[in-house]
Write a structure and sequence with these properties.
2 copies of one chain form a homodimer.
Chain A lengths: L11 H11 L3 E2 L2 H6 L14 E4 L3 H13 L4 E4 L16 E4 L6 E5 L4 E5 L4 H8 L4 E2 L10 H7 L6 H4 L2 H4 E7 L5 E3 L13 H5 L8 E8 L1 E2 L3 E8 L3 H13 L6 E5 L1 H11 L8 E8 L1 H17 L6 E3 L2 H12 L1 H8 L4 E4 L2 E2 L5 H15 L3 E6 L4 E8 L4 H20 L18 H5 L2 H12 L33
Parallel strand pairs in A: 2-4, 3-4
Antiparallel strand pairs in A: 1-2, 5-6, 6-10, 7-11, 8-9, 8-10, 12-14, 12-15, 13-14, 13-18, 16-19, 17-19, 18-19
Chain lengths: ~475, ~475
């Protein structure tokens, strides 16, 4: 894997065409290129050859057409909060920066939906919605753009109740590899009219097209919200509580697990004083009577699994502090080891396998000796175990790679997936064959059909065809469980 | 459009290969062929050349491989309850009858999911689940197979609360056009690992592959269920109630609209005595206190829109009678005009457009003079206005066709879809261009890539390329609203 070619790699005719189109919004400065070549993870920067700051769908179409004519890659970019090297220009090319496309096109309270340009961030949308009593529920922590969240099929703390981007996106505007524009679906709440193009582009990470607008479902801000912090003596007891609560049908809006290392980092970073023990952070949404009933039922389950003193929070400011602290986990980790970067693992398993997966990983982690910390959207069976690595220490990166590989292969063996919400990007392509087997050939067929020249964010999602290069790729060894 | 070719159209070598494979489970009898050539709608029968009663995924693979070698179409068949000519062998070929593949492979209460063979029906699965306190929520009325429901992206009365097959299917086993087998996803509750093949095959109506097993989400049977029947002076008042209830976030499990004709047909067929006026049938699920709270909130909204005396039903046997009567609407219609068949329209619009769409259609229907009756899953903006036609009366069929076309184009103009849940089949292909525009080319590209010889249920979903043959296809006239 070599660095991307220098800016001069772009044909002068292409640069000229893009400059004529965008003027000063086409940049080849080193600073701009460097900024657009990396995300928030440990992945090394891969600067693009140029950055195109687009202002409209028509401009995206024009940029893609120009790049297609020159067979030059295009890499969509929102605000760069992804975590698996999604935005790196691993084969050079033009970064399409959509952050300037940040208009809220329509909010329709009657239909509980909104249409926004791809560069609108979730906080921007929620600020706009607040006075209407509505909110956009998907919350990955980072203030990502909705285009980026659709592209990576993001989710987060609320997904257990309100769904992920898969369930939340109603329709997309997409520029295809030839520069043509499609709308993936009508705004009808449901439809059986042909192939589900919306869901095909959600999670496609820019490899099939560039998302330029997003229509999403909205929800009413709940009448009552009740927060809770519930410490446990062990991770196993916390997980047993989660499983029983999910099975009993409790409609929890959030149920997040942190291990003691995470609580310690959060306390230090956000100046809080939670007991430094495995802890569930919860939120209940509903009517005033409803949330009290949910909370009582949850507390009974938690007690039966050895929960320690629960703290309840009916005050909004207090709850905001709690969730802001949870959202700052990434930065709290970083503060624990200056100079290090976070390797944020992200697997998701059937909830029946969660305790086993966590226990085996905890043991592995302890033996390896990394500073690591756990946060989990455990109601979905999804968790992140971040480890702090110094990217310049090759041995450390290699050890993290092996640890991550053992964790991912364990999750796949247990019937799970290599990524619950971060996406495949550049970093997890090697896990696609063990996870998907033959189905990967269908993905390759679709990619080849919709992007025949391979210009759409190349080097992401699909592994290069390198037989034998996959982890655990022994002949005849299928790590997936019989289903 | 001519009838399919006779059985002798299949090459003797192919028939021999299929007989060697299936023995007596390969049939070319006229009765078998006739039975497998039609669904429950007005669409004329199009018998296949042979019927292959398969017993395993491996047999499906072998049948598809044999047919692929001879470039002969394969048409998947469950129990034939579809409504848009999905199972007609419009280009001849071999019907793959999956109804014998009816094993429940696994039920996993901890994970709230189950895996079944494609031929398992929803009532069969629910009977199996009852003792576990779980249920499969998608309920289209007919006792369809789960394979068929996945293939048509079915939904029904519960979708407003529990989702459609789009949200319910976790993973599929699929035999592709070359006979290879894929699993579309792991059982993880969420994943960002590549293209969403599950959602691609859900709703693909056998045109991309044959679904052989289905993994679905399950829900706990609610602790308390409360039914209600709520009559209104007008459809408009009923719809205004629905819109306000949805907007206020009331988590209704079912909210179904019937017009006075439908209530009359239901009363006659099921020996009931509901007031013959526009009526909402409702169901609330939750805790005992929760359903009472929902019911109070709903009643307040309904009262403000002129609801007449509401009837509440806490008794399960009574509720079962109510919903059985609702599910028998199709047969209640048929009984109103012996010899006629039902033309079951099926559009879905953004809920803000529902009142306008219903009012315009009601007027059109009255002017046309058809015997028609309305049932609507109005919480989703989805409704059916069935008209009774005699298929042998060409003028009547043509008039129905025009009425249907006006309704569908109205729904598309209002931002909706030509089908909310029945699917495209053979009958609605002509509405795909006005609904999808350029996006249809992406569907065609995917179809060509995954089924290069066009053997997978040909003549369904995608229209034949006949320029100018689409309704409303005036140059430059895009019926879709600006979004």
């Amino acid at each position: 894997m070599s660095d991307g070619p220098p800016a001069s790699a772009l044909a002068p005719a292409l640069l000229e065409r893009l400059r004529a189109l965008l003027g000063g919004r086409l940049s080849t400065s080193e600073a701009d290129r460097a900024h657009h070549g990396h995300d928030e993870s440990w992945h090394p920067a891969r600067p693009p050859d140029a950055v195109a700051r687009v202002a409209s769908t028509e401009e995206v179409q024009a940029v893609v057409r120009a790049c297609a004519a020159h067979r030059v890659p295009v890499i969509p970019f929102g605000v760069g909060t992804s975590l698996e090297g999604h935005v790196g220009a691993v084969r050079g090319g033009v970064c399409i920066d959509l952050s300037g496309m940040n208009r809220i096109i329509a909010v329709r309270p009657q239909d509980l939906d909104a249409t926004v340009e791809a560069g609108v961030t979730r906080k921007q949308l929620n600020a706009d919605l607040r006075d209407l009593g509505l909110f956009f529920a998907v919350d990955p922590g980072a203030d990502a753009t909705l285009g980026g969240m659709a592209a990576t099929r993001a989710s987060g703390t609320n997904a257990v109740r309100y769904g992920t981007m898969r369930e939340t996106v109603v329709s997309l505007g997409v520029v295809l590899a030839d520069g043509s524009f499609i709308r993936t679906a009508s705004r009808a709440r449901k439809s059986s009219a042909g192939y589900d193009l919306t869901r095909l582009f959600v999670g496609s990470e820019g490899t099939l097209g560039v998302i330029t607008d997003v229509t999403v479902r909205l929800f009413g801000i709940p009448e009552a919200v009740l927060g809770a912090v519930c410490p446990f003596p062990s991770i196993a007891q916390a997980v047993a509580t989660v499983i029983e609560a999910i099975q009993s049908g409790l409609p929890m809006a959030r149920i997040e697990l942190m291990d003691s290392n995470t609580v310690r980092a959060v306390n230090a970073f956000s100046k809080l004083a939670y007991a430094e023990t495995p802890t569930l952070f919860l939120e209940f949404h509903g009517s005033p009577a409803g949330v009290e009933e949910q909370a009582r039922n949850f507390a009974a389950i938690a007690d039966s699994h050895g929960a320690q003193a629960m703290q309840w929070s009916r005050d909004q400011a207090e709850r905001s502090r709690l969730w802001q602290a949870r959202h700052n986990v990434h930065y709290a980790f970083l503060a624990q080891r200056p100079g290090a970067k976070v390797w944020p693992t992200d697997v998701c398993v059937p909830i029946s396998a969660l305790a086993e997966c966590l226990a085996a990983t905890e043991k592995d982690m302890a033996e390896t000796g990394f500073y690591s910390a756990l946060v989990g959207h455990v109601g979905d069976g999804n968790f992140h175990w971040g480890f702090l690595v110094r990217p310049e220490d090759a041995a450390e990166v290699a050890a993290a790679e092996r640890l991550n590989e053992r964790l991912v292969m364990r999750a796949i063996r247990l019937g799970g997936t290599c990524t619950g919400e971060h996406g495949v990007g550049h970093g997890k392509r090697k896990f696609m064959p063990p996870e998907h087997g033959e189905a990967l050939s269908v993905m390759r067929t679709i990619k080849a059909a919709l992007d025949p020249h391979g210009i759409m964010n190349p080097g992401k999602v699909l592994p290069d065809a390198e037989p034998g290069a996959e982890p655990g790729a022994e002949p005849g060894a299928d790590p997936r469980p019989a289903r």
